[in-house]
Design goal:
Blueprint (H helix, E strand, L loop, with lengths): L2 H42 L4 H5 L2 H4 L8 H27 L2 H23 L1 H9 L4 H6 L1
Helix pairs in contact: 4-5, 5-6
């Protein structure tokens, strides 16, 4: 193999390597964003940083299976949202734009339910901070 062929092969391999690094970079940025939110919570509150990063069972000295059903529910919401996003992506590859929009909208709704279960919007945030009455919360 000549040196010219080796150079051309190495140039064709770099875009693929770059494409594989893109999802890693997105995941790393998402992890850093989560840590940044924890750092902001730590700085504006009287709680230590571990309060925002440790497991609730460890903080309260409870059994590690405390909240197990809730955690499985969160895993199910995340798996459902991932499947809907994948379905929307595959629909866009096939040119089915109406299905893509419906699947992405359903994924957004599932992500909202995931966040609602994670941070207890309807049980804690809405009544205490937004002062929404129970009748409005029950509709949501």
């Amino acid at each position: 193999m000549s040196s010219l062929q080796e150079i051309s092969l190495s140039r064709t391999a770099s875009p693929r390597r770059l494409a594989l690094g893109e999802p890693f970079a997105i995941a790393a940025l998402a992890a850093l964003a989560v840590l940044a939110v924890a750092a902001v919570g730590w700085r504006v509150s009287r709680y230590p940083f571990g309060y925002f990063t440790r497991d609730p069972a460890a903080l309260t000295h409870q059994a590690p299976y405390m909240g197990m059903v809730s955690f499985f529910g969160l895993f199910a919401w995340a798996a459902g949202a991932t499947a809907l996003v994948l379905g929307g992506y595959l629909a866009s590859l096939r040119g089915a734009l109406d299905r893509r929009k419906a699947l992405f909208l359903a994924a957004a709704a599932v992500v909202y339910l995931l966040l609602d279960d994670s941070f207890q919007f309807h049980e804690y945030v809405y009544p205490r901070y937004l002062h929404l009455p129970d009748s409005v919360i029950e509709l949501a």
